[in-house]
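Section 3.1: Structural characterization of target chains.
Under the original work plan, the team committed to producing a structural model for every single-chain target entering the pipeline before any wet-lab resources were allocated. The record below documents one such target. The sequence was received from the expression subgroup and is listed exactly as submitted; it comprises 106 residues.
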Amino acid sequence: MVLTTFPPLAGPIKFVHLNPKFHSQDLEFRPYDLMVVRREDAEPEHYTMSAEGVVHVTPGSPSEFISLSQWMRESTLFNVLTRIRFFRNYLIYKAFREWRKSCVAD
C-alpha cells in the first residue's frame, strides 16, 4: 500500500491514491472496485482515501467528498443489489426488450 502524508496544522494525514478497476469496454459496471496506485500513477479521474473518507477527483469539475462510513454503506448496498438477478441482468434484458420491440415494429 502506498501512503502519502500531507502535513496540515493538526498533524500528518495519511491517504492512498486509487484508480477505478473498471474500463469503459467492460460490461460489468463496478464503481466501488478500486486499486491502490502511486501518486504519479493516478489517472486524471481518480480517488483518494483517508481515515476520514473518500474524495473523487474529476478534472474540470469540483471534487466530491464522502465519509468513509457512507462510502462503505453504499458499497455494501451496491454489492447486495448486484447479486439480485433482476439488477444483475437488467442491461441485458433492457437491450433484448428494445431489440424485440424494434423487430415487432417492422
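The beta strands are 4-6, 13-20, 34-37, 46-50, 53-57, 64-67.
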